[in-house]
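Need fresh eyes. Consider my entry:
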Amino acid sequence: MNGSTATWGRRELSLLMLGLGAVAIVVMYFDTWSDMYRLWRRDTTFSHALLVVPVSAYLAWQRRDALRGLPIEGSVIGGLFMLAAAATWVLGSVLRVAAVEHVAVVVMLQALFWAVLGTRMVQQLMLPIGFLIFLAPVGKAIVPVLMHATADLSVLFCQLTGIPVVREGMLLHIPAGSFEVAKACSGVKFFIAACAISVIVAATFYKSWMRRLAYVAFFLAVAVLMNGFRAYILILIGHLTDMRWDHDGWHVGLGYVIFSITILALIWLGDRFSDRTAADPVVTTPVAAGNVVHAIPVAAWVTAGLAIFAGPIAAQAVVIAPPEAEVQALVTVPGEVDSWRIDVDMPAWKPHYSGALAEGTMRYVSAQREQVVDVYLGAYQIGGRGEGEMISYRNRIQHDANERLFESRESSIALPSGKTLAFVETPIRGKENRLVWYWFEIGSRTTLGDFHGKLLEAQALLQGEHLERVVVLTSTDRSYDAARENLESFVIAQAEYFEVLAR
């Protein structure tokens, strides 16, 4: 009896360590978890995450018979995975890449189960533990891809049914009127929810990993196809009613109806072609009562604890506040030249950026006062906290209520010295048309892309550089050619200022 009591005490201690470890991950990385919770509550794209833990717990409960005879062994390998997740979180934290932070803390939580429970336990709990990855509110990066897919499919369905259609970017023109594929039309909510549902269905109905992967791929392909079909239905109704029918009131409801029918049909198909039978046994390895728990896995617990506490400490040590003089130097706007004068009477246009350490804005008019160019400079700290992140989903060139996808492209112009100034060119269309040129300066380097910019931020931190800025030039004009001519004229006139940025 004493041996049995000691054995149960060790098992109980291991489960207690699992609970304490989970609490410690939430406490030590509270800002990341609270940011995730905010997204779960406010963004319906990720509202399914509120059900992930109950679903995972239910899936684990279904495996209770398979777990009874397995030992709680602990695993140093699991602890090492926690250390890797912590290092990844530090990188995401100092670079302010929220998606990396979110995924890292979830993976750390998953690896905690491995570190405390051991490999054999985790093999039986692979589905419920793996399903926790859907706690991470990530996936919106695929919105542009889904928008293009929705537009392509809508055009295809129109062509197949004889509806004349002309596509102009995200605008679809039919004889009766025009439709715009906005970000809300991308179907990203449907797609992410389909990812979670398809994983559960595949694991429930299929034993073969190849069948599971094929089913998930098929599920997601149908989800994209049906979202394109939903958009086509709205176009078809507009075509048949000569745009007299207002679909704004219930097009969201139509999406939920199509989503529900599609999900039910795909679950039925999964069950129809299942390779499982009711007689499939749950295979476990019998373990003698005296061996239910091996020696206390101290090494695994120490590794896990080190991973939990080291991340936040390392993140605080990396970021160094930059001198104020260097910050102000980054937002010094160009001066006047003969052909361009500063206009102090009108405020300059600003992009939808926030969180800068300092900002500089100025409006310039040509000598004939026929051309106008606005300049915006924003200085940021590499690895800044809070909203002080230059390259982020919060910061965008234009805040658009309709969530349009503005088409951007890389471009450049030659300066008088022969050097080339490269930039991203984005035409904005709305109440006021605007042509925008912008680029990022990170440490001593210049970049045009968000992903490349994040890599440069990591490199700059390693080299001890702590400041970056975004440079935006804008020109208000209804003619693209005229707007580009304005900006070219301004940059060439201010060649001395922009020379240091060119290559």
Q: What stands out?
A: The first strand starts at residue 166 and ends at 168. The longest helix spans residues 209-240.
